[in-house]
Design a protein that fits this description.
387 residues, mainly alpha
């Protein structure tokens, strides 16, 4: 799980630092760098949210969910973590780095997940499916009624951004969280479960990304978007709009525009559609299954990656601090900057874990959560028990 979390964080670094930061361009060509960047964009943040859900399940009973009084202290820990992450996310946002900070959204996801903590895997999987299927469509209808998407100056500007209009809207991302919680209720040591995760992941990825591609190209989805935007103008202008639409497919920032319902057929990164949600859950399942098998067979080799993943919060916050202090941007052309960030994180995290254990932010967050949980009594007061 730590190795998968490291892949998620390093994937987000790829997006934040930009294609120009990849030394891969010089070694294998611009096409390879663009392909790697495209592979990580959107899927990395989805994997991050998926693993958050998995963590929540592990914190609240693993395969047998805690209920009643047993849940009190875990809920207190989750609430404290959510508050700390929201404050840290707000601070990082104030630094002005050109990054859509996910931590405040993460805090909101924790709160939205609280009612789901007592549920088992089947119910959680059903919730994940319901959010993926209905959330993007409801978001489209509500945002259409709101009139316009608005321009975001910060990573998040309130509850509306958290739920519908932000970079990481709950209307899509709670599908990842609920799916992660469902997986966390399974026996991840079981070879049968791992095989099921891999098979389901492959099927969902094919359905999400492949289904969108079929609907957009052979079945004319792109043409319908262009026609809606052109408003019945001459064919030449419609063709121009189609070319523009193709350019915009990779420029989504949390949800699709509301000027054509056919936008909901795309599966582009950060488009917030059902197709993207289904495909990203599939890719998350594949990554987790691969990491589970690799950890069993080559655990020692994965130690640096797992060390970085165990300090994902420190690595994430640290790279934003560096970007802000050095004025870095995803528009920079600085080959091997990404490799330098990742290599430094792997070395420092490995040394820290060997010598000091938990990462600095992880240790602080854990102590705060433990302090919050200690305020919750183990038992009901005597009067409450008598009633």
């Amino acid at each position: 799980m730590d190795a998968a979390r490291a892949l998620a964080v390093f994937g987000m670094l790829t997006v934040h630092l930009g294609v120009g930061s990849l030394g891969l361009a010089g070694l294998a060509g611009e096409g390879a760098a663009e392909a790697f960047h495209g592979l990580t964009r959107g899927r990395s943040s989805a994997l991050f949210a998926f693993l958050a859900g998995l963590s929540l399940a592990l914190m609240t009973g693993r395969t047998v969910p805690l209920r009643g009084r047993e849940l009190r202290r875990p809920i207190a820990r989750i609430l404290v973590r959510a508050l700390a992450l929201a404050l840290l996310g707000g601070f990082l946002d104030l630094l002005g780095a050109p990054v859509a900070v996910i931590l405040t959204y993460y805090a909101g996801f924790f709160l939205l997940a609280l009612p789901m903590l007592p549920l088992g895997a089947p119910a959680l999987a059903a919730i994940a499916a319901a959010v993926a299927l209905a959330g993007p469509q409801l978001s489209y209808l509500i945002r259409s009624a709101m009139g316009g998407d608005g321009v975001r100056e910060d990573s998040i500007n309130g509850v509306a951004d958290l739920l519908l209009t932000g970079y990481y809207p709950a209307a899509t991302f709670m599908a990842f969280v609920a799916a992660g919680m469902a997986v966390g209720r399974l026996d991840l040591h079981s070879a049968r479960v791992r095989l099921g995760l891999a098979g389901t992941g492959a099927g969902l990825a094919a359905l999400g990304y492949g289904g969108s591609r079929v609907l957009l190209h052979p079945l004319g989805g792109l043409d319908r978007i262009a026609a809606d935007l052109a408003g019945g103008s001459d064919p030449a202008f419609t063709a121009t709009m189609r070319a523009w639409v193709e350019e915009q497919l990779g420029q989504m920032h949390g949800q699709v525009p509301v000027d054509s319902p056919s936008w909901l057929l795309i599966a582009s990164p950060h488009s917030g559609t059902t197709f993207e949600a289904v495909g990203a859950v599939g890719s998350s399942l594949l990554v987790l299954a691969a990491c589970l098998v690799a950890a069993d067979r080559a655990g020692a080799l994965l130690y640096p990656l797992a060390a970085a993943g165990s300090m994902a919060l420190t690595v994430y916050a640290g790279h934003i601090l560096v970007m802000a202090s050095e004025g870095m941007s995803h528009l920079d052309t600085a080959p091997f900057r990404w490799e330098a960030f990742v290599g430094t994180a792997l070395v420092l995290c490995t040394l820290w874990r060997l010598l000091l254990g938990r990462g600095p932010l992880e240790r602080g967050l854990g102590r705060l959560a433990d302090a919050g949980a200690s305020l919750v009594p183990d038992q009901d007061p005597p009067a409450a028990r008598r009633r």
